[in-house]
Automatic annotation (TrEMBL):
SMART domains: FYVE
Domain of life per record: Eukaryota
Coiled coil (residue ranges): 43-108
Name of the protein in question: RUN and FYVE domain-containing protein 1
Keywords of the record: Coiled coil, Hydrolase, Metal-binding, Zinc, Zinc-finger
TM annotation in the entry: none
Pfam entry (one): FYVE
InterPro entries reported in the protein's UniProt record: RUFY1-3 (IPR047335), Znf_FYVE (IPR000306), Znf_FYVE-rel (IPR017455), Znf_FYVE_PHD (IPR011011), Znf_RING/FYVE/PHD (IPR013083)
PROSITE patterns given in the database record: ZF_FYVE
FYVE-type domain: residues covered: 127-185
Principal EC category: hydrolase
Length: 193
């Protein structure tokens, strides 16, 4: 009987140890299940993040392609812009040259108008009607002779018409009065500048 009691106590201790091991195993199992659940949730979260990242990557790739196309269009437009700037500069230079030629032509036309007007207006004053110099108003005499200005046609004394200038109507310099001399000098200096 004592032997049975000892065996029974030993069996109880073994049962207690097994119960403790079983309890430890259940705790471990519960902990592992919790860890596994956390791992699964984390894995699912990572998969969702991966899907979102792939979508973002695809969107970025699409934007990169669009930017490449826009860059190519920009390069084409930049080349066209440079070409247009060159064309505009050439046209501005041409316009400046045309303006200069037009200005010269206007000056020449003005000169031609003045010459033709002066030729139309320049009628020689009759010697008999001129008793005094047109400029200084001194009376003509044997010593103070009459001289016609070849530009305006009026009659002057020697001192008021002691200038010579080339005129379009003559091949060599001819006598002109002081007033016409000043006027012609201004016209020539304006046409040269």
């Amino acid at each position: 009987y004592e032997e049975c009691v000892l065996q029974k106590d030993a069996a109880r201790q073994t049962a207690q140890k097994l119960s403790d091991k079983l309890s430890d195993g259940e705790i471990q199992s519960s902990s592992l299940e919790t860890d596994l659940k956390i791992e699964r949730e984390w894995r699912q979260s990572l998969q969702e993040t991966l899907v979102k990242d792939r979508e973002i990557h695809a969107e970025l790739q699409r934007k990169i392609m669009e930017m490449k196309k826009q860059n190519e269009e920009y390069q084409v437009l930049k080349g066209a812009h440079i070409q247009l700037i060159s064309t505009v500069e050439n046209q501005e230079r041409t316009l400046e040259e045309l303006g200069a030629h037009l200005s010269e032509s206007k000056l020449k036309m003005a000169d031609l108008r003045d010459v033709s007007k002066s030729l139309r207006d320049a009628q020689w004053a009759p010697d008999k009607e001129a008793t005094h110099c047109k400029l200084c108003e001194k009376e003509f005499s044997i010593s103070r002779r009459r001289h016609h200005c070849r530009h305006c046609g009026n009659i002057f004394c020697h001192s008021c018409s002691d200038n010579t200038m080339p005129l379009p109507s003559s091949a060599r310099p001819v006598r002109v009065c002081d007033a016409c001399h000043t006027q012609l000098l201004q016209r020539y200096s304006n046409s040269e500048s």
